[in-house]
Amino acid sequence: MSFRSLLVVMGLIGPLSANAAVYNGNPVLSFHVTRPENDFVAGDVVLHQLRMRKCNNQTVTYTIDEDIDPVDGWSKSIAAGDYCTATLVWDTVMEIDGPSYVLEYDAASTAVPLSGQSQTVVLSPIDVVSGTFSGNLPRLVLTIQ
To answer: Residue 101 has what pLDDT?
Structure first.
């Protein structure tokens, strides 16, 4: 096979993603919001959708429409597949309560690149709506098992 033929074949295969993971069986996606100080007390947000983007750019959308506590966490069984990104679509501002402060995360969605069983993304920017906040920003920890 010539070099040119090899390039054509590679082009037909498509680009390989640096973020990809194959989840077999009956995987369960779960997430919670925390930070290294581990001092969050509770939270509140409406999770509108979970969008799972496969590595072939097809998307599987789960409509959730549930009021959840992101500090306690949430989980959902998903279809097995080769996924590159999980996107959580929020219907409200996420509120996170600490021992002496209240934070808000006002993004419409949070995308989490997938490359294994557990991924962490920093939630930023945040607003301090009451109290005094210092230290590390909130992190969303997403796990698929």
So the answer is: 98
**Is residue 88 assigned to a domain?**
yes
Q: Would you say residue 43 lies in a domain?
A: yes
Residue ranges with strand state E in 39-125: 42-54, 59-68, 74-77, 81-90, 94-97, 101-105, 109-113, 118-122
Q: Six-digit token pair at 117? A: 């069983």
CA distance 75 to 126: 24
Confidence grade of residue 66 (pLDDT, cut at 50, 70, 90)? very high
Bridge partners, residue 112, by sequence? 86
Q: What is the reported pTM?
A: 0.86
CA distances to 96, 103, 105, 129, 135 from 100, rounded to whole Å, are: 11, 10, 17, 11, 13
Using the predicted structure, report yes or no on whether residue 21 has a pLDDT greater than 90.
Answer: no
Number of domains composing the chain: 1
| Structural domain harbouring 97 | 16-136
